[in-house]
Design goal:
The protein has 6 helices and 11 strands. The protein is α/β, with parallel strands linked by helices. It has 3 domains: 102 residues, 3-Layer(aba) Sandwich (Rossmann fold), CATH 3.40.50; 99 residues, Formyl transferase, N-terminal domain (Rossmann fold, 3-Layer(aba) Sandwich), CATH 3.40.50; 74 residues, Roll (Methionyl-tRNA Fmet Formyltransferase, Chain A, domain 2), CATH 3.10.25.10. The strands form 2 sheets. It has a 7-stranded mixed beta sheet with strand order 3-2-1-4-5-6-7, with helices on both faces. Strands 8-9-11-10 form a 4-stranded antiparallel beta sheet. Helix 4 runs antiparallel to helix 6. The model has no long low-confidence stretch (mean pLDDT 94).
């Protein structure tokens, strides 16, 4: 197959991701034909617009799957040469992934095989990593296990907080890797098998990580607060919960330095941490 002119279906629930991919693909001489999103019964955060008529890239069909089993017929109807997936909540059936002749490729924000799973950015903070990872990989029947096509890293800064701060930097690295990814796809390159060593799972947080221990080092607690910010409200428990000023609160944002914004100074195991925002828990 030629290296340009591919029909590409995008699978994502994140409008900025769809716009970035459409822009890149068109400039590279390909034809993005549809964005496939997922129907959800959970309302998005008020500052996070869902994929829809007002947010999807213009000029493409917008497909909304009711469940994972409707993905295959929707993709097949678009006759794609390639599927690109990035930011999608469901494990996609293998039958759907095998529809395009060039295969299906996913972007996962981790250095696979480290941090496979639903919340890899949160685990990068939890594990004290100094960087986020970005991996483009071929998709198979399992989650985040397919052969890799390209990888990159994004440094984590002390004041990084929330997807609005780090998402654009991760996105820039991911899009920057795409020329090499598509070149390997065009060549029929199957990708590099993921090593058996270093596999970790980035699953949803539980009670074991929900409570703040002020005897921990300040950076460890700061990372705990930031990690919970990247669970996107999907954890089955509430966290991180702390005792602060005689009240039980959920820490929302902290800083390792006095930002001058009136944050409350708290002594940790190795020094101070400033609480910038917290919500009372009844």
């Amino acid at each position: 197959m030629t290296e340009t002119g591919w029909r590409v279906v995008l699978i994502t629930t994140v409008p900025p991701v769809a716009h970035a991919l459409v822009s890149f693909l068109r400039e590279a001489g390909h034809e993005p034909v549809a964005v496939l999103s997922a129907r959800s019964t959970v309302a998005p955060p008020p500052d996070r617009a869902p994929m829809g008529d007002q947010t999807a890239p213009p000029g493409l069909d917008l497909l909304v799957a009711r469940d994972k089993w409707s993905i295959e017929p929707l993709v097949r109807a678009m006759r794609p040469d390639l599927v690109l997936c990035w930011g999608f909540p469901w494990r996609i059936p293998l039958s759907a992934l095998q529809v395009p002749p060039l295969g299906s490729v996913n972007c996962h924000p981790a250095l696979l095989p480290r941090h496979r799973g639903p919340i890899p950015l949160a685990w990068a903070f939890r594990d004290g990593d100094g960087q986020f990872g970005v991996t483009w990989h071929r998709m198979d029947a399992e989650l985040d296990t397919g052969p890799t096509l390209a990888q990159g890293t994004v440094p984590i800064a002390d004041d990084d907080f929330g997807i609005d701060a780090v998402g654009p930097r991760i996105g820039a690295v991911a899009v920057g890797l795409l020329p090499a990814v598509l070149a390997r796809v065009a060549a029929g390159d199957p990708g590099d098998p993921q090593p058996l060593e270093g596999v970790t799972w980035a699953g949803h947080f539980g009670e074991d990580y929900a409570t703040v221990d002020w005897s921990w080092p300040a950076r460890r607690i700061h990372n705990q607060v930031r990690a919970w910010a990247f669970t996107f409200g999907l954890s089955p428990v509430v966290g991180p919960v702390a005792e602060l000023g005689g009240r039980r609160v959920r820490l929302v944002r902290t800083s390792l330095v006095d930002s001058g914004d009136g944050g409350q100074r708290v002594e940790c195991g190795d020094g101070p941490l400033w609480v910038l925002d917290a919500e009372p828990i009844s």
